[in-house]
Please model this.
Amino acid sequence: MTHDHLYRPEPCAAWPVLELRAVGIAYRDAAGRGLEGSACLELAVAAYRAAGGGEYGAERAVRDMIASLSREHGDWLWGPAQAWRDQHVSGNDQLEIMASFECEAAAS
Model:
């Protein structure tokens, strides 16, 4: 996907609170358990749907919500994932894992 301008996520206030909260908690928890980005996304999409989010465009909405949360509440969202990496992964391996998450976020 290409953009004519730099992608800037919507503010968190633009999203329905229940859906945003469900997505954030699910993604944060999954990343904090060391799951790969695709598994985190899958769990966040399921939480989004369970919170009342629609089927059509669910994955895109969840990716955008994660981008919004990353921008406004990045320490909260990514803190558990960083703690897991610090505990389980050594130096060079951390770079590969972080690149995996960043590539998936950029693909949205």
